[in-house]
UniProtKB/TrEMBL annotation:
Keywords: FAD, Flavoprotein, Monooxygenase, Oxidoreductase. GO terms for molecular function: oxidoreductase activity. The keyword Aminoacyl-tRNA synthetase does not apply. This is NAD(P)/FAD-dependent oxidoreductase. It comes from Patulibacter brassicae. Signal peptide: none annotated. Its EC number is 1.14.13.-.
């Protein structure tokens, strides 16, 4: 027993109490009630991303009918939900499925060492400044794909001379007072298009400074059809129908953009133009260099960014930074943007498996030298699984499938008497490629540190929900590349 009286040898340890960890824990609790598991969370609260980010307007840009768990209906009228609504939803799910008491807060995972002889992971955690060890049969990484400690923050020439406040959204100060002040938000991604309209009602003026435009699409904050169905149908049935409808819709949007990029460009431009003031230079500020869904589309609820521009509370400037000045930012064009507050919405740093150092029988695991098996395990790494969601539709759709497949794997091992499962890549024809092909800046900077995907077989990593559903939900558990075995035991001593 550990110092706090709880088990230190478990069947499953889940690292992370964000949406991936809570979703997986709920499925384990429901489907395999005899499995002993715990969730390790370095912070003091549930929520992961949604508890970490505190910048104005923080919200999901995926609709919650697909981003929510399949087993728990989304009850809010808001389809695009604020961060606190998502945290409340996760708290409810954890309480309803008996997961809350299995979360060990303040447990930062430092390393994990696999022993084939013991068929166990030894997991080293830091708790209250002390290191402790726990062991488990299966380790599950629910850490997401970015560094929670610090976002991407380039250094700008002359920034040390700036006399105002410089803020990154990932480290948003609780006491930041921007009322009536001139604010410049550097960036044009999902965070920037959220922060700008959220600050615009309070700040004197907010300027979104972008080096190049992104695709920004207005999306209704509420789903009228879903809310109507909730009033006339049983709750779970209404949720399931809405979920299917929205999955099909977003898959259709993605497929349409990929197949008809020119037509999609024209359609998005027409929608954008209709939302902006007459005579606005649409192509200067809202005509990206790339095709739709080569990078993720930025969704703005009810077109709030465009409304702020129409009201004159916000503006967009497309230019490059020459240097900071004491009173603002000097642009390459020679124009100077005055600023009291500058928000660097410059992106995130990608990080595989949350700084956890892993070894297998004493040999360090180099993630970039492994290949993902069924997009949820790693070649050569026994009894380890992970959740990486989709980048083109709701993240949680993939997580739900992975969690269900993990339960199937654990059930199979129990029934067949197996202790170890190891993906083995011994097919020389499998070509290794980056796990995601997505032309976003944060992906280009950090994707090289992640596992690879294979060119065919169970080593592919699809961005397609239907293909993954067929493979993970309905496909067989066994595969020639997944080797099941029992532990390697020392021979008994002779009497």
């Amino acid at each position: 027993m550990s110092n706090d009286g709880r088990d230190i040898d478990l069947d499953v340890l889940i690292v992370g109490a964000g949406i991936s960890g809570i979703g997986t824990a709920c499925q384990l609790a429901d489907r395999l009630p005899d499995v002993r598991f715990a969730v390790l969370e370095r912070r003091a609260a549930i929520g992961g991303t949604w508890d970490l980010f505190r910048y104005p307007g923080v919200r999901s840009d995926s609709d919650l009918h697909t981003f929510a768990f399949a087993f728990k209906p989304w009850r809010s009228d808001n389809m695009l939900a604020d961060g606190h609504e998502i945290v409340d939803y996760l708290e409810e799910a954890a309480a309803e499925h008996g997961v809350r008491e299995r979360i060990r807060f303040g447990h930062q995972v430092l390393g994990a060492a696999w022993s084939s002889q013991d068929a166990r992971w030894t997991v080293t955690v830091a708790v209250d400044g002390e290191e402790r060890e726990l062991t488990c049969r299966v380790l599950f990484g629910a850490t997401g794909y970015y560094d929670h400690d610090a976002g991407f923050r380039p250094t700008f020439p002359g920034e040390e001379t700036f006399e105002g406040e410089l803020v990154h959204p990932q480290q948003w100060p609780e006491d930041l007072d921007y009322a009536g002040k001139r604010v410049v938000v550097i960036g044009s991604g999902a965070t920037a298009v959220t922060v700008v309209p959220a600050m615009a009602g309070t700040a004197g003026h907010v300027t979104m400074l972008q080096r190049s435009p992104s695709y920004i699409l207005p999306v209704p904050r509420k789903n009228a059809i879903a809310n109507a169905m909730r009033r006339v149908l049983p709750e779970q049935r209404a949720f399931e129908l809405t979920r299917r409808m929205n999955i099909a819709m977003w898959r259709g949007v993605y497929a349409g953009c990929q197949r008809y990029p020119r037509g999609s460009r024209r359609l998005i431009r027409a929608v954008t133009k209709a939302m902006l003031p007459r005579g606005y230079p649409v192509d200067e500020h809202f005509k990206p260099r790339y095709d739709p869904w080569d990078q993720r589309l930025c969704a703005v609820p009810n077109g709030d960014l465009f409304k702020a521009i129409r009201k004159g509370d916000a503006s967009v400037v497309t230019d490059e930074i020459e240097r900071f000045t004491p009173g603002g930012i000097l642009l390459r064009s020679g124009r100077e943007l005055p600023a009291d507050v500058v928000v660097t919405a410059t992106g995130l740093n990608m990080l595989p498996f949350g700084h956890v150092e892993m070894t297998v029988d004493g040999e360090p695991v180099r993630f970039d030298e492994t290949v993902a098996f069924r997009a949820m395990m790693l070649s050569g790494v026994p009894n380890f699984a992970f959740a990486l969601g989709y980048v083109n539709v709701a993240w949680t759709l993939k997580v739900g499938l992975v969690a269900e497949h993990l339960c199937r794997l654990l059930d199979h091992m129990e029934r067949e008497g197996h202790e170890v499962m190891t993906p083995v890549l011994d097919d020389p024809s499998v070509q290794r490629e980056l796990i995601f092909e997505f032309d976003a800046g944060y992906m280009r900077r950090g994707i090289g540190a992640f596992p690879r995907r294979g060119s065919h077989g169970p080593w592919t990593v699809d961005q397609g929900y239907v293909a993954d559903r067929d493979r993970l939900l309905h496909g067989p558990v066994e595969d020639p590349a997944l080797r099941f075995s029992s532990r390697v035991r020392e021979p008994a001593p002779l009497a």
